[in-house]
UniProtKB/TrEMBL annotation:
RNA-binding as UniProt keyword: no
UniProt organism field: Paenibacillus cucumis (ex Kampfer et al. 2016)
Protein name: Xylose transport system permease protein XylH
Membrane topology: Multi-pass membrane protein
Phylogenetic placement of the source organism: Bacteria, Bacillati, Bacillota, Bacilli, Bacillales
The keyword Nucleotide-binding appears for this protein: no
Amino acid sequence: METVTKLFKNNIRQYGMIIALVVIMLLFEVLTSGLLLKPINITNLILQNSYILVLAIGMVLVIITGHIDLSVGSIAAFVGAVAAIMMVNWQLPAWLAVIASLLVGALIGAWQGFWIAYVRIPAFIVTLAGMLLFRGLTMIVLEGQSISPFPAGFQKISSGFLPDVQFSGMGLVSIIVGIALTIWYIVNELRERASQRKYGFEVVSQGLFLLKLIVVAAVTNLFTFVLASYAGIPNILVLLFVLIVVYSFVMNRTVMGRHVYALGGNEKAAGLSGVKTKKVTFWVFVNMGTLAAVSGLIFAARLNAATPRAGTNFELDAIAACFIGGASASGGIGTVFGAIIGGLVMGVLNNGMSLIGLGIDWQQGIKGLVLLLAVAFDIYNKNKRAA
């Protein structure tokens, strides 16, 4: 019992948000008379929030380093506009336009990263300027009008599904993917547990470990079963899964990830320890620019149009997702998984409130209150540990 209590205390913010997500989902499932968890709505939740979740993955790295990026929504809009010009006006192949768009995003990130890392202008000021600059460039490039439609192949980024084989109204491939993911997760957890024991680290009891495996396996297979009963696994979910796995690995298992945490924890100490703080900051913003470009492409593909107002408030939703998911405003703390949970909390709130007919005024107010309470909870826990 002591180990369980210690585990929960050490991960109280992350576990708390998972519990909050489950409670919010159950609440809206009741309030919407079962509409929230219907297969079609679960799929819509993924499609509607995918571009925010992509931004949240990049934003959590920025926040961990102790910075903030207010420009990501404008960058997403600008990249979507550039992609539209290349694909619709210039008739370039979609794959070439996507690569060029990602390069544009990386260059924008490098531009902002240079001013922040090497000129030492605060990130708030640089990215605020970027928000205004790239919003203006979006309107100039589009000449105040929308450009559409995109090629069908490009639209499948957001609206397509993995090829599936139907049997009695169920997608067999989706179910097989769920089973494969369960096996991969169990094998990975068993290896991790064996490794921790080998080096003398404390591990949870066998009963609690088995319970964790059973719960995760059940949730994973239930989720893929729900998707299989509608249209299968969306292409965008595959992209999100890859990004989550890759960025979680980088942040938890690589030198670069350790340097990002060290920089956010104490920049001077990190520099004295040999961390190239300017270089790390620069590449974090290059990465953010690239993921903002990915988000812009996803949103453009979903709308099937590039519009001057695309990306509005994306940065606020991404930042909120990170803070709700456990990132610290002072830097050094945060996880990719936590940012995803935070993004899902915001997404379920948006979707659930829309389904029960709450107006946009109430929705904005409630989301603001949730964000405030999440940050207050973080500060309370910090003060409690410091006492």
